[in-house]
Write a structure and sequence with these properties.
Layout (H helix, E strand, L loop, with lengths): L11 E8 L3 E8 L4 E8 L2 H14 L1 E8 L6 H9 L4 E4 L4 H7 L3 H14 L12 H31 L3 H6 L5 H9 L9 H31 L4 H13 L5 H14 L13 H6 L5 H9 L9 H4 L19 H20 L1
Helix pairs in contact: 1-2, 5-8, 5-9, 7-8
């Protein structure tokens, strides 16, 4: 790798870094996009210091664009932040452009620097040195233990299905706890038959499941009741944020709907009685005429809107449109048909 020292030490320098497990490759450009040089350093504390000194020699360092700030670039990101530099997280380059222009670590590092200069990459990487990172590490260990526990019981039951008939029948119909305890107490002297090898495998899986149960319980207690009070407070806040939203709003809307039936009727029309509402009969003549002239609309209030006291839900939004009284219809029909009969007869 070559390095070109800039003639103008006051120029703005942007460094892009392509990170790997054992080596990091960096390319520096100025504010006009001119390439200033490239450098390869080892992925350790000494290499981080060499990279920082090399960038300072080229000019005034503006930002570092680093790929993989959450994996191979985590150590470099933390070191540069402690030195007071601005670090931007850069995603992997476009595969189509990489196929057209070739693939190399220097090309990826230069692409990272140019994406920072163009403003395409602006994400700020995580610090990975606080309380949240401590909780995340414990959670990763607990999640992997839970996955292994599930895999162990599934494999154990699969072996029982394919085991010899006498062994399978002796373990059939048992609960998980009883099954694990019985399989963990198997004694096998020599694997001289399929039954003996099946017992040996079932005992290993059952003991693995019991060990993972103990590990999951220990990690759960460590995450919920840590000895560090700061970690405990952060865990409590994160658990409160991860709760599903809408639970309070749904209960509030249910309360509003249940309380809306007990609201006093409006001044324009009287609310129908519960028995008449089920049968679809109006409570009075005035409300019948108003309801037959105006169509009934269903309520479209959201749960959060129903909880607002300034916008009460409509009490007749879910009520079916009232039907005309059969007595009045028959009387009207009889009154309307009597003149016609008298005319025909006359």
């Amino acid at each position: 790798m070559t390095s070109i020292v800039s003639d103008a030490p006051s120029s703005k320098v942007i460094v892009g870094v392509d990170t790997h497990k054992h080596i990091h490759v960096a390319v520096a450009i100025n504010q006009h996009g001119t390439r200033l040089g490239d450098r390869a350093v080892s992925a350790d504390s000494g290499g981080y210091a060499q990279l920082e000194v090399w960038a300072q020699e080229l000019g005034r360092v503006d930002r570092f664009g680093i790929e993989g700030t959450g994996s191979y670039g985590a150590g470099l990101t933390s070191y540069l932040r402690r030195c007071g530099h601005r670090v931007v997280e850069v995603n992997r380059g476009d595969r189509r452009s990489r196929r057209s222009s070739g693939k190399s670590d220097a090309i990826d590092a230069e692409a990272a620097a140019r994406s920072v200069l163009a403003g395409t990459s602006t994400a700020v990487p995580k610090t990975t040195n606080g309380l949240v990172e401590m909780i995340r590490q414990v959670k990763v260990a607990r999640d992997t233990a839970r996955k292994g526990r599930t895999s162990a019981i599934i494999t154990l039951k699969t072996l029982i299905v394919n085991a010899p008939a006498e062994l399978r029948e002796s373990l059939d119909g048992l609960t998980n706890r009883v099954l694990i305890n019985r399989c963990a107490r198997f004694r096998v002297s020599a694997m001289d038959s399929p039954t003996a090898s099946a017992k040996h495998s079932l005992r290993a899986l059952a003991r693995r499941r019991r060990h993972l149960d103990t590990e999951v319980r220990h990690l759960r207690r460590r995450a919920r009741r840590p000895r560090n009070p700061g970690v405990a407070d952060t865990t409590r806040r994160l658990r409160h944020r991860s709760r599903p939203r809408g639970r309070g709003s749904s209960s509030c809307s249910a309360t509003t709907r249940s309380g809306s039936a007990q609201r006093p009727p409006s001044r324009n029309s009287a609310a129908p009685a519960p028995s008449q509402r089920r049968q679809g009969k109006p409570a009075g003549t005035a409300s019948t005429e108003a309801d037959t002239d105006k169509p009934t609309l269903r309520s479209t209030h959201s749960p959060s809107y129903e909880c607002d006291s300034t916008n009460p839900p409509s009490t007749t939004s879910l009520a079916a449109p009232p039907k005309a009284s059969p007595k009045k219809t028959s009387s009207a029909a009889s009154n309307g048909s009597s003149p016609a009969r008298s005319t025909s007869e006359s």
